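Example record

The entry below shows one chain as it appears in the dataset: sequence first, then structure tokens.
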Amino acid sequence: MPNKPIINPPFTLADHAQHLGYWVIIRTLILICLGIAVVIFLWDGTVNLPFSEILTALVILTSVNLLTFMRLRKPLPVAQLEFFIQLLVDLACLSAVFYFSGGANNPFVSYFLVPICICAATLSGTYTLAIAGLSVLSYSLLLFFHIPLPILSPHHHQADNSINLHVMGMWLNFFISACLITYFIVKMARDLRAQEAQLNRWREDQLRDEQVMAVATLAAGTAHELGTPLSTMKLLLSELRTEYQQVEPLQNDLKLLQDQVNQCANTLRELVATAEHTKDGQLPSEDIGSYCASLIERWKIMRPDVIARIHLADHNTNKGTNTDIRAQFHPTIAQAIINLLNNAADASPQEIDIEINWDEQKLIWIIKDMGAGIAEEVTAHLGKSFISTKTKGLGIGLLLTQATINRYGGTVSLHNRIPRGTITQLTLPITRGTSIEPNTL
């Protein structure tokens, strides 16, 4: 089957569609409050209000709210201009309601603060300035042009009530506005911060992938160029071993060199084989224990000078039952693990602890060395750019390792060890299907 990348569920960004959804909720709450107030005054009958004009404005606003709700159910992007127009509709309809219900003396007139806050948190400065200016203009006009209601006058007192109704209304409106602003503005700001953090992570991943692609391009050319000198070295080493058979110390050194050259040649062959075998996403299943053991043996051939204590979990016997777990491993995963082992070997070749364990869901490698550890200023950049903690290091190993392991859903973490050294932990999910496919954004 063709190799189809698995697309992770996308992060839900705090875009204008989501903000408009919040605004629909706020508008609904305000319409409910105003509707309840109209019903109460209609039922009481003591207040003479132009109910037909007020209801007309509320019906228009309710219709806009319903249309907006239906529009948000469609996967269409919401532009800043559309959100701005929605705020203008609210401003116009509510200005009309306030005009017919006391003007600036209406306790709900301070609701104009809410669209200003929403606009400031979500739209550009130009739109915010426009909404703020129009809100101030509307409030100012309502001071002079409105249908007065004596019951809402600040100097109106009721004989049977020592608390002025205007003061109580202003308090209620302040309480509602404060609750709405606190909840929704904080939520929107949190979404915006989450969006910014996610975009920063995406930028870092993109930069790392670009660096990896550059390394891969150079590696392909280098692999092609190394074929001829490696063949020459193998031939010369074979001739030297034949010529100096009687010199045992030299034979040992020549054999070591020949093993190293053979390892380089095998690595180049595997590079080509990897491209051939994985182009269709098909990989064989392997026993995890055998895979890890063969990987350790391969590393020991590469680093014969290293003294390491290997703790390989024994999952083959569990009260007499066979508990083998088979999984698929992309060839680049082996290279990533060897990079981590080589880093530990470079740090402390005489004292390394390697613990390997797994279960039905994940494979875990824990590599402990007694090197100099990692400086705090370097830790944040490891695996994200070309940076090395070694004097002669190129800074490529950790970058490639992080990119490979993350590509297949795993994680790599490095921590300083007490009293000294580094603890490297690799966690990789177990893949058991017929194909192994990378995760992509």
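Notes for this example: The beta strands are 6-7, 286-287, 308-312, 326-327, 352-358, 362-369, 411-416, 422-429, 439-440. The first helix runs from residue 16 to 44.
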